Amino acid sequence: MILKAIIDDQVYELNVPDALLAAAGPFFAQLDRDMDQGRQMSREWVGAPDRVQRCQIVADKLLTALEQENDKLGRLMAGYILSRLPGVESVELDIHGEIQNNRFNLADHQPAAAAPTPVRTASAPRGGLSKLAAMEQAGNDVTKVFKVGKGWRFSVFDHESQTWQDAPLAASEAEAARLRQEAFKTRYEALQRGRVD
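Given the sequence above, the corresponding structure tokens read:
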């Protein structure tokens, strides 16, 4: 079976023999068990990824394999997608690290994509929160760090506009984690004061 991986204007054809699909069954099952625990998909934590979301997560690993010219891993990731999305012909890979933007084209030419994640509509708190409540809310308002291409960032929820604001791109996971910790502390303290800027 062949899966076409599209990166910008380049098309890579990944030939995955039926024998490899059959032999990799236990590996694919292990991937599913790992994803049963939930996954970070860019700025959103998805507790129970559906079939398409799982393939989007694996497509992100496929992009990494292609960037690193790791043919074996690339064929395994392509095999997972072929085994979980019957009729898939190609995957359009998002090079900016937005996992949920990986799109699949099926044989009937209908793109397969996950349902959009609803945006939280909670309003900003009016009174100061307790330490525990402020810590929990700050954890909801500041995402974990996530990979974007070759860099790292996190997002902060803006209560006024009801949108997620991306932090600047950091060169390393450690630097993004340090900046995230600062943003978390700032939000935590603001929630205790009852004011979110």
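The two ends are 53 Å apart (CA to CA). Try to locate this feature in the token string yourself.
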